[in-house]
Protein: Gfo/Idh/MocA family oxidoreductase
Amino acid sequence: MAKKLGIGVIGCGNISKAYFSLAPLFRGIEMRACADINMDAARARAKEFKLRAETVEDLLKADDIDIVVNLTIPAVHYEVSKRVLDAGKHVYSEKPFVLSLEEGQDLKARAEKKGLRIGSAPDTFLGGAHQLVRELIDEGKLGKITSGTCHVMGHGMEHWHPNPDFFFQPGAGPVLDIGPYYITNLIQLIGPVKQVVAFATTPAKERTISSKPRAGEKIPVNTPTTIHGLLEFENGAVVTLNTSWDVWAHGHAPMELYGEAGTVFVPDPNFFGGEVRFTEEGKPVKKLPKWKHPLGVPNEMHGQGMMANYRTAGLADMALAIVEGRPHRCSMELALHAVDVMTGILRSGETGKFVAMQTTCERPAALGVQEAKE
Structure:
């Protein structure tokens, strides 16, 4: 049996519960401690999941912690990850990994100097639905991908999140908050991006919270909330990416990819599972049979039905990769290229100019049925 690496978590907010509850599904990792600047939050999570509650300083000194998961707000991802690396521990960050190329390159240099690994969410592209699409592409069923469309549109987080403020500040907005799921999946399916261009607007300068406990409170909006982008990939494909928190309803599919030999309809990259539809040339569109992929099996209630949720899959893959001496799929290179794309889109939205990517990366290794079972 593979060695289990000890995991500590910094940041005990909403997303931490998913990591703590789903980690036992995976081999190679063991949750051991959590920390937060709010010690009451750390103690509450520790009690809930039978962990140690630590100060951030003590967690970084703990001998039984090999990887620290950074679940802080995006604005401090860089500073916290830097502290983790400087303490001599591997780090796995929630998305977005960092908010600038300069921050990412600094962390990369620090990690390489100490022989440490950096990983980053999202890991939803490892889900059964998206890996089925990956297999279709790798087997040549679509031919060369030539274009595509992506739409991630809604009306913001102020209607459900208890503290939605940071979603509307620099470092968030729909591109940096939800964009990582779509852009990371596009990179793993098509490859790296060459250049981008975009238009960005901020229709509402403030939002009114309708969720409890702060219903009625107004919050400022200091980042674009509607961004329409165009991505040119290194293989020549051109994909439209429309993101907005100013849309009440729409009829677009989350993601469609068009190839020389067919079209594939990709489910929402924010989730691990979903329905994959496919057509070869002029044949009717058909729903593909459910794939027997472990990370596509519904395991959690969502709304009126069940969904597949396997967050921490990327963390577990990174831990096993450290032990086995192989590259991990949710890699720093992949995350940094996604940040390059996202910040390029925002910069283009500000300037009206095309923005060339300064980074590139390899497509992460596919995670087929057998690899996922192992």
Notes: The radius of gyration is 20 Å.
